Amino acid sequence: MSVKKFKFVSPGVFLAEVDNSQLPAVAEPMGPIIIGRTRFGPGMTPVKVDSFSEFVQVFGDPVPGGGANDIWREGNTVGPTYAAYAAQAYLKANVGPVTMFRLLGETNPDALQTGGAETAGWTTLQKIQTSASIDNGGAYGMFLFNNSGSTATGTLGAVFYLQEGAIALSGTMLHGGGTATEEAAGALFSSNGTHGEFTLSVYDKSDALKYKSSFNFNDSSDKYIRNVFNTNPQLSNTNFVNTANLSQGEDCYWLGESYESNLKREISTFSAGTTYGMILALEASGSDKYKQDYKFGSENQQARTGWFFGQDRGVPGTYNPSNMPKLFKIHARDGGRWVQDNLKVSITAIKASTNTADPYGSFNIEIRQLSDTDNVVRVVERFSNVNLNPNSENYVGTKVGDKYTEYSYADQITREFGTFDNRSKYIRMEMNEDLAEGLMDPVLLPFGVMGPPRFKSITLPSASVSPPTDSFINARANGTAEIPYLPTAGTYGTDFIICSTGFTASVSFPRTVLRLSASDGGIGNQKDAYFGYQSTRDETTARFDRGACDYLWAMPEGLATFDTLTGVGNTTYNEYQWEFSMDDIIITGTSDTDVFYESGSRQLERSYTAQSGAGGYKGLLKKGYDRFSSPFFGGHDGLNIIEAEPFRNKFMNGQTAVNNYAFNSVRRAIDTIADPEYVECNLVTMPGITVNSLTQRLLDVAEDRADTLAIIDLPEEFVPFTDSTEPLSGRVKTDVTLAIDNLEARGINSSYGCAYYPWVQVKDTIRGNILWVPPSVVVLGTFASSQAKSEVWFAPAGFNRGGLTEGSAGIPVLGVSTRVVSKDRDKLYEANINPIASFPSEGIVVFGQKTLQVTQSALDRINVRRLLIFIKKQVSRIAATILFDQNVKTTWNRFLGEVNPLLGSVQSRLGLTEFKVLLDETTTTPDLVDQNIMYAKIFLKPARAIEFIAIDFVITRTGASFED
Question: Within 13 Å and on the Cβ side, how many CA atoms surround 107?
Fold first, then answer.
């Protein structure tokens, strides 16, 4: 403390403490960037997590693969997520964070976008076309109708996606002279059993019958539609599925959505002879829009809610939810379907302001599990006491966050938009800009929400050769050249739908459930009821609907997604499933015992808020009815649904960013992390991706950054089952010369990369599954455990730090795909490929630590390269603290005063044998000072690892002296 700091007025002794023992701020630790697939989470942007528990929260647990139940509903559980295992392996050592870059599908803006491999997403192999041929596949709806004379009501019951061929109902056709032996699509058939039982046939493009079965919509029945038909789209992929093992035509089709709960609401009679069924093509009449077209042209889509809107403050009789002021929308941070398949959002504890000085009210946002019920609420994330005041610290945008990123291909940089950092692991806000600017009525509260989209309801007339205008169905009747399937010879007329004369039907598409009464589901306290969206099987039960996710799928390419503030967008083919408002809640009974929702009741002046003297919206909230729910919808990961591994190497080999969306997505991920000022790391890997041009790009980025080591996998080691129909014996590559020759042919000479051989077998610690993973997975774990046991500059190899059997990988390692014998280890090491060896006693061991540098120097070893990366990063941080200071000796001494202790510490911890830092007038000359440059030289002698031990055992005569 300077003497000038004392205040001397009268004589005395003045004491002060000067604390020079404070430790300098420790730089935040760094870890690897891992590029690859995860179960869910933010996509195509780097996200840092500090522990495996946090990783599971944000990205989900690793998927071991092999799961093949209802893939349509449950998502891809067949292909292993190698990147997630790599993250688990590294985080187990607790030496620093992992930055995860989750891959999603993205189309390059320069791609021609013809609907082929260059476009992200999926469609069936062929689209329905105006042709008499039946080899075109497409999407077909199974529609059901009730029998009520000449006029019927119907709805969509299920959707079949065909890669080729056709499907048809068989039985009694209603066309005047029907028999029980006819078969067709685009024709009306009578049900032949209870619960909507019908018989359906699957044909391939050669008109050969592949599969025929009866089915119904009772999920407790053996004939339940999802028990009878294939629900795994991946079985239609002949790139890794052996069709010889398929017996039910799975390579031709799969069953997508099925709407059991909606059928129970919409079909009044549901038994043999009283229910009709029909197969209709799901396509826009006279347009190029198809139900099976999920190639969105650019990229994946995040799930979102509809717009939340405010309470009505006008005349009740003129109320229209669509005209209410839109407040905000909630987006999933996850790119894909996971959020809509697993979560929902509730607005709770809505409170109007009671303070005239502050007109803003408050509310809570709860992110809940989709499968919970209002009886047993399971909240995964909550934001309490938020408001719509943009100047408040409790503003919902501030509390939740609203930032998102977009990548510029032209500039190869990621731009961030929004104002507030995201504090939620799952969601972000989109605020009405007028609200964010404080230009909306401050008394507004979230009081309703727009529901998901669906196809518009229509009326089907029989006396027509064409479908209704703007409908999303087509029959393509006999007599034209457009029928999807009608194998039976005969004349059925040219009606749009083949059926009895005079049949007319109104058709609605499925909608999600809304709570109708506060007492539905047997809830104990009616005020605990969440109005709005319910994920239950129907309005009266608390039982979860396992098909809830089917109602929330994204609309196909080219159709409105209801994102506009001014309305529902293009309404040609779409409409809202519902528009929910708390203003439509009715309260009756002497003790308010009957509380229920009725759409349109405020306009009819029957709702509680429409009643004179009830207190309007404030009165309803005071009654305790202050909560409602909404689903997420419209998410799409941009990946091909028929691929177990959408980024499989055979799909990307030989491709470019403009003709292959998967290649483009990986390339974009690598380019995104190229800037060291955007994301820090000291390692980078993309487990399982072996395409030479992509791994080379990763090496180039590591070399350009000069602060990270790339761990790459090689192609000639192992072919995963997701990329081949061969058995395991044919997919394991046992000839090390293939890997060596390929690597040598590439001419790589870089100390910023390394490679290992072969693949290893590991055990999933969560489910107990056994699976094969690329070597980069366990090597990354070994790097972390080696650093935890010693230092970053110790060789991550050998029995002490590279013993995989002993746990150095962070996950249990059980075996290797190929046992590398001594002579093969020699060959690999000479080629700069690090062997993973298996020994009878010691187990499986990482037995090498070479970089991919061909030129012999200290940097051809991993421990030295990692030492230099560490030192350069630390010195760079020290240098940054003196940037823009005076270029004088005092500043130089500050730099020396921090760098010398740093290097001395590294030396004492066995990283260096000697060092010298030179910074004086000989390095920073007057000429450099005039150019505003400070120039220092740091001389290092890295400590080398022992890789070869030579010992002579000398056998002597009995009488010889050892001293001799």
Answer: 24
DSSP state of 572: S
Give the pLDDT confidence score for residue 560 in this predicted structure.
62
Rounded Cα gap, residues 385 and 399, in angstroms: 10
Average pLDDT over residues 602-628: 95
Domain residue ranges in the chain: 32-108+638-863, 138-293+463-496, 302-453+512-631, 887-964
Helix (H) or strand (E) holding 71: helix 71-74
Judge contact between 774 and 52, C-beta under 8 A: no
Q: What tokens appear for 898 in the block?
A: 């921090």
User: At what angle are helices 692-705 and 661-672 packed, to 10 degrees?
Assistant: 10
For the stretch 475-531, pLDDT in tens is 653 333 334 445 444 445 556 666 655 667 889 999 999 999 999 999 989 999 999
Bridge partner residues of 49 (DSSP):
98
SS3 255: strand
415 bridge partner residues: 406
- Largest CA-CA distance found in the chain, in angstroms, rounded: 122
SS3 at position 633 = strand
CB 503 within 8 A of CB 150: yes
H or E element in which residue 279 lies: strand 275-281
Phi/psi of residue 520, nearest 5 degrees: -60, 145
Instruction: State pLDDT tens for residues 569-595.
Output: 556 888 899 999 999 999 997 777 799
Tokens of 912: 């260096």
* CB contact burial 24-43 (16+ within 10 A = b; e otherwise): eeeeeebbbbbbbbbbbbbb
Q: HEC profile for 381-441?
A: EEEEEEECCCCCCCEHHHHHCCCEEEEECCCCEEEEECCCCCCCCCEEEEECHHHHCCCCC
CB atoms inside a 10 Å sphere around CB 221: 16
Q: How many CB atoms lie within 10 A of CB 69?
A: 12
Its CATH class, for the domain covering 32-108+638-863, is alpha beta
Q: How many CB atoms lie within 10 A of CB 243?
A: 15
